[in-house]
């Protein structure tokens, strides 16, 4: 994908110029990623007297959590860690009950949001042993699994899990297993030049106050890292599907699945496994926000069309929540993505005879072949239980999503080999409503349909 058009670049730049001026931000950068490549970068304000570049470092706060979560998922895929394992199986001696790895990743563990002691984001950190000794039953604020409750403490525990399994610090594991393979060479635990300084902007005057920066110790996995717009663009590409072997794409898709929502019935925001989720502007986004004293950052990706967007700023407050969604809206309006060209599928592997109408009782469904060789079963009305299926070696089909995710679809054939009915986890789908020739559970009334 080529860079954005000059006219689009001007509109994107104007949007962040308005944000930087109205938000009174010392500096602001933003970028758009398409098809795994940096398509646009813009910056306003000054760092050391010059405009920031794609290589200028900013502190990225809680985006760190997603990088830690990636190593946790690698451990899961290796069979070393189970998502349903209590954290105490991997970090012995904790007094936090039976909270699981999955609950920590999704912020449903019920653990306290912050660590005991002084405000951890503004004070030097303590070693893991000291932090964990201060955790007790009162650290658990809600029944595990009951609700979303954001927990920085939870990611301190996950960082320790990574360190114990890898035999190195969490940061070293992230560097070797995530950053280096993705080419994110400028993402580091402490700042390197050139980097922005963190500031608070006075609410009633145009003056600045430097914010503190330190090593967060055991709390570092919750928000320690510094990064650059260029590196965060590579991270956005990863979230959108360009995983470079760091994780299987199916594992990243699992991380993007909603595990909890944080705004009740509206479901505009939530969490997967180490990833923050949002629904906005007709898109379903995955990524993470980040904030530390003096810094704000966010990365969002939409894997449905392989686009990502991000910003970094060196201010404690001042960036509007809608900035990145508005940048995507500009892109959609002025450079809408063209759909992929349709082309016929050469080999249907004898599956055409399965396509067409099927009936679950009197409810009409249609079975279609997917371009990649799978099957799609959807209600003809478009409303109801729908799922995609992938073929198994034994001739059955595995549900990939929707109501039948994980369930088995079997094609039951007659003596002549033709398909008679579908058996989907005990539900029988027939070629006509309640076809008496099929083995419908409970039988079909001998009198048939009547007026």
Q: Report, as a whole number of angstroms, the end-to-end distance.
A: 61 Å
Spatial arrangement of strands, main beta sheet: 2-1-12-11-10-9-8-7
Strand tally: 20
CATH homology-level superfamily of the largest domain: DD-peptidase/beta-lactamase superfamily
CATH class of the largest domain: Alpha Beta
- What ranges have pLDDT less than 50 throughout 5 or more consecutive residues? none
By DSSP (H or I, 4+ residues per run), the number of helices equals 9
Query: How does the overall form come out from the CA principal axes?
Result: globular
Which class do the helix and strand fractions yield?
Answer: alpha+beta
**How much helix, percentage-wise, in residues?**
10-25%
Strand content: 15-25%
The helix/strand series, from N terminus to C terminus, equals HEEEHHHHHEEEHHEEEEEEHEEEEEEEE
Gyration radius (Cα, Å) is: 26 Å
Largest sheet: 8 strands, antiparallel
Number of domain units? 2
Pfam families: Beta-lactamase, DUF7586
Keywords: Hydrolase
InterPro entries: AmpC-like, Beta-lactam-related, Beta-lactam/transpept-like, DUF7586
Domain DUF7586: 350-431
């Amino acid at each position: 994908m080529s860079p954005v058009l000059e006219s689009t670049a001007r509109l994107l730049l104007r949007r962040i110029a308005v944000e930087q001026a109205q938000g009174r931000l010392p500096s602001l950068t933003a970028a758009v990623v398409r098809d795994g490549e940096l398509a646009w970068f813009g910056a306003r304000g000054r760092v050391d007297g010059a405009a920031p570049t794609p290589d200028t470092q900013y502190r990225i706060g809680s985006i760190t959590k997603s990088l830690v979560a990636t190593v946790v998922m690698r451990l899961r895929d290796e069979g070393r860690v189970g998502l349903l394992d209590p954290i105490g199986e991997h970090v012995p001696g904790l007094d936090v009950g039976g909270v699981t790895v999955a609950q920590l990743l999704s912020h449903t563990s019920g653990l306290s949001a912050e660590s005991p002691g002084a405000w951890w984001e503004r004070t030097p950190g303590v070693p893991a042993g000291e932090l964990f000794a201060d955790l007790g039953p009162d650290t658990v604020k809600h029944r595990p699994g009951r609700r979303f409750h954001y927990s920085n403490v939870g990611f301190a525990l996950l960082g320790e899990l990574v360190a114990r399994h890898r035999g190195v610090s969490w940061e070293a594991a992230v560097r070797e297993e995530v950053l280096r393979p993705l080419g994110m060479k400028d993402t580091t635990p402490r700042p390197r030049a050139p980097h922005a300084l963190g500031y608070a902007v006075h609410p009633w005057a145009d003056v600045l106050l430097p914010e503190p920066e330190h090593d967060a110790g055991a709390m570092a996995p919750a928000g320690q890292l510094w990064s650059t717009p260029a590196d965060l663009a590579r991270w956005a590409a990863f979230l959108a599907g360009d995983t470079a072997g760091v994780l299987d794409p199916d594992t990243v898709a699992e991380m993007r699945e909603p595990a909890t929502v944080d705004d009740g019935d509206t479901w505009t925001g939530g969490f997967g496994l180490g990833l923050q989720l949002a629904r906005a502007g007709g898109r379903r986004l995955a990524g993470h926000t980040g904030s530390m004293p003096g810094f704000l950052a966010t990365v969002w990706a939409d894997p449905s069309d392989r686009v990502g967007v991000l910003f970094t700023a060196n201010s404690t407050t001042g960036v509007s929540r809608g900035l990145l969604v508005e940048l995507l809206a500009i892109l959609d309006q002025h450079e809408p993505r063209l759909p992929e060209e349709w082309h016929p599928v050469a080999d249907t592997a004898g599956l055409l005879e399965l396509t067409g109408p099927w009936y679950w009782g009197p409810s009409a469904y249609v079975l279609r072949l997917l371009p990649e060789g799978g099957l799609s079963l959807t209600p003809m009305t478009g409303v109801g239980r729908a799922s995609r299926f992938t073929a198994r070696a034994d001739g059955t089909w595995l549900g990939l999503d929707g109501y039948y995710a994980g369930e088995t679809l079997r094609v039951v054939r007659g003596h002549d080999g033709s398909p008679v009915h579908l058996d989907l986890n005990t539900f029988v789908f027939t070629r006509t409503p309640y076809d008496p020739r099929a083995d419908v559970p409970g039988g079909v009334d001998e009198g048939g349909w009547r007026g």
